[in-house]
Write a structure and sequence with these properties.
Blueprint lengths: L14 H17 L6 H15 L8 E8 L4 E8 L6 E7 L13 H11 L2 E5 L11 H16 L5 E11 L1 H15 L8 E5 L10 H6 L8 H11 L24 E6 L5 H13 L4 E6 L14 H18 L15
Parallel strand pairs: 3-4, 3-5, 5-6, 6-7, 7-8
Antiparallel strand pairs: 1-2, 2-4
Amino acid sequence: MPNDNMVKPTDRIHPQQADALKRNAEIVAELGNPGAGIDEVRAHADAVRAIWNEGGPQMALNEARTIPGPFRDVPVQFYRPSADGTLPVFVYLHGGGFRIGGPLSNDRQMREIAASWGGAVVSADYLHVPEHTFPDPVDEIVAALEWLAENGADWGLDTSRIAIGGASAGASVALGAAITLRDKGRGDVLKAVLSLYGVLDYNLESDSMNELGGGDFMLTNEYTQMVYDGYVPNPADRSDPRAFAAKADPTGLPPIFIAAAELDPIRDDSLTFAATLKAAKHFFVLEVYPGVLHAFFGYSGVVDEAKRCVTDAATFLGRALGSQGGSQGGQGQGRA
């Protein structure tokens, strides 16, 4: 007979996370059916995120800009917490299953990071499925980073202090760009990489997926496979570390911050990546946030663990890049 006293995975969801999910469902219902077209789905997702992004710190500069790219002018949102001085910059890539999201998806979190850290943030779009698949988004972001390295001084940026990072699908693209720059002999462009509950491993049979992928924790095995295969339709590319970084040789990459959610079906992607870095004696920081699910970062206004993730990211950026007028911090060997 089942033991009624046994703690179920759903019992481990923090009440703040549960309340955020309930409120998100209410917002989705209030906004109505988005329709079947991809443009309508994207617009609906943007409207949901706009509500969550209300409040938070004000910036000295917060404006939409573009960066020239190989496929289009890349839309970005540019944040400066201080109007004066030369600032290091964090390039951030949103999540959204490689299909939805944009530069304002994590508007509040970007303002919070910029305010806490003291550096600038460029929240960048990247090409989406189904219009584009791997490696187009990676190539676009590589070009954007190279443009910033050459032209960022015109934006008041210190081009010797650039970091990149992203959430979920954005983390995959960010790491793919870092690996590509390394392989091109341009590894010096980046001083840090951040991965927030990243899509890092093509593994649909991990312990976390088997435990949490049944439908109670946002992502299911079937949905995850659809997302992965949609982004990387060619099976031969699924072993390419630019798409799934967990098995990458980290030699020549900068220090890496890894955030994982305890109750995320793809949590073990991050743990596998951390194990790869540890075995290679590569500097990394791994934080596993208890009681929260995939995409928890976007609830920093109401979930304490999301607030802590914002602070941890800002602290890591400060140590790796410094802040306004500051020198780059030193890094030692990584820890788990």
